[in-house]
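chain and backbone:
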Amino acid sequence: MDTVNDRKKIEKYFAKNFESLMVDDYDYCYIYSDFRWFAYEFGKNLEKNDFCSAVITPLFDKKKTIIIPTYTYTTEGVFEVTKTPTHLGALNSWVLQQPKVCRSEHPLFSFGAIGPRANLVENCGKSAFGERSVHERLRNKRTCIIHIGKPIHLANTIIHHVEQACGATYRINKAFRTKVYRNEKYLGTDYNAFVRRRNVKDHDFHFDLKRATDELYKSGIVREVGDPTKLSNVTLCDYDEVRNFFVESFLKDPSIFLSKEFVEYED
């Protein structure tokens, strides 16, 4: 097995696509990923660590700061920032194994970051999506969102940040009793998230981003190579442009992110 050439092939492939999508315009790259298609096409002979490193190396070479979700949804018990594993996917686990990784403290929705400005994710507030959250800190910071093998409508946690900022009535702010530690030092509890309401009959408030994403594509904000229906896409969007677009979309239609319409009437 020629693993060296396989790795170089992957690095070259992603370097070319990142270049064509104008990643040079950005300092922070917020990445969602699903490597199934890419692993089948390029990575059959590589270990997970080598494959993930090959994908990220072109961004690292450009001195980008990479931010990756490392959610654990730890709603009770203990969340140890440096030890509690994520169960999201290959790249999400990989970033936590990097020697200089920084990780945010939220027990449900943490982020791992590597690169020259990785400490942006540390010492955040207790809100997952509100003030002092990672989402809020990425505003006006030359940030892009990159989807690798993941359609936009299947992964975009920024909508919860938008919902909280716009005061969505189908969600409530909920605190969790999880105790948070970093290297055995107690950081606190009552970290909170803007979560779905459970008290409305016949509505589960399941989110569905297909309508909003279809409109996003029409806006011209999306830059893309590959095919998201085949999970072969590399897609790049400007973070602030996406956020502003979703805010405007929500204000026009407060059910835009839901699988079915919801209207909150005054009692």
